């Protein structure tokens, strides 16, 4: 769908992106239903607890690293890869240069 394309839902014409997103969310909520077994729910609960422990009270989830580790990670990273949790694309990180590292 093109950005300026109108969307017709239940006979109504929707033209704004927020309203299109709302329509999609309502449709998706109506057709998706994930069901988890008791074992899966317990596993998910334990994983969430473990993630909270790893992140810590200060919100940090990473240990300190040195310049060699950074250089190695940047070399291994795909330039056109998807941004990480911080929304910074790999191409930006790879092109920072020595002063950015």
Order of helices and strands: EEHHHH
Which outline best applies? flat
Low-pLDDT regions: none
Give me the secondary-structure category: mainly alpha
Q: Helical segment tally?
A: 4
Main sheet properties: 2 strands, antiparallel
Task: Report the average pLDDT across residues.
Answer: 82
Question: Separation of termini?
Answer: 40 Å
**What share of the residues does DSSP label as strand, in percent?**
5-15%
Number of strands: 2
Spatial sequence of strands, sheet with the most strands: 1-2
Compute the CA-based radius of gyration: 21 Å
Concise description?
With 101 residues, this protein is mainly alpha-helical. The chain has 4 helices and 2 strands, in the order ββαααα.
Features:
single chain; two-stranded antiparallel ribbon; 4 helices; 2 strands; flat
Describe this structure in words.
With 101 residues, the protein is mostly helical. Helix content is 48%, strand content 6%. A hairpin with a 2-residue loop joins strand 1 and strand 2. The longest helix has 18 residues. It is flat.
């Amino acid at each position: 769908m093109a950005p300026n394309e109108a969307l017709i839902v239940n006979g109504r014409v929707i033209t704004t992106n927020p309203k299109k997103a709302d329509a999609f969310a309502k449709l998706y909520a109506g057709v998706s239903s994930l069901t988890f077994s008791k074992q899966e729910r317990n596993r998910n609960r334990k994983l969430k607890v473990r993630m909270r422990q790893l992140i810590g009270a200060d919100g940090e989830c990473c240990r300190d690293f040195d310049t060699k580790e950074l250089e190695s990670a940047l070399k291994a990273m795909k330039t056109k890869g998807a941004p990480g949790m911080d929304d910074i694309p790999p191409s930006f990180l790879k092109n920072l240069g020595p002063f950015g590292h």
